[in-house]
Structure of PspA/IM30 family protein:
Amino acid sequence: MKKAVYWIMGERAGRIIVGTWNWLWGMPVESGGKVAVAVAEESLQSMQEAVQKLAQAVAAQEGAYKTAKNKYETKIKEFKTLEQQAMIAQKGGNEEAARMAMAKAIQTEQILPKLEEMVKQAETAVKASKDRLNRERVKLETYKSDMQNMKDMSEVNEALAMIAKVNNEFDIGSAKSDFEKAKGAVERRNLKTEALAELSENPVEKLQAEIENMTLDDEVARRLQRLQDSNPKQLPE
């Protein structure tokens, strides 16, 4: 599916569309997670393919340049040969052959500057293409290194996210805080209950109860003492 989109829309537009799809599915590249790494890998693959195509184009350019250069050099040799043929024919007294050879030499000479200019343009274009190819290759190697660093960073981020998740799930500090709050609430309620109990108690009744308790204690002590005094003392044998 991805290759079909790239083929129809082009690589740049295709990557944008695929990235949009990822966002619509709740996986935006901006999240910096695994989706971002996957998009980066797709982009890196596209760059590798583009550099490979550029290398093939440069090779074709260089082949065409060599062909043009060889043609130019062949024409130079042809010109020199025609001039030599005209000179030989003239020395041999063959005026017609000399004129014919010289006419061809002149025609060839007329095209040489144009061929030379075209060869120079081809050489300049090939040199520029080679320079660009070298720059793109250097960039590609840089992106490859960045890709590996990105993968490593993504793995570290995943590990940190897992650590944070564990810390959040087992947040004992939060439980301690809740416990202390509950403990404080219970203690405050206990104090309030005691205060209400003290306020609701009748002081007169409390004093009367204390007096009765004291009287009862005295009566209990008196009777115990009487029992002790009424017991007959045993004489020693």
Remarks:
- Residues 23-30 have pLDDT under 50 and may be disordered.
- Residues 95-169 form the longest helix (75 residues).
- The helical segments are 2-9, 11-24, 34-91, 95-169, 172-200, 203-230.
- The radius of gyration is 54 Å.
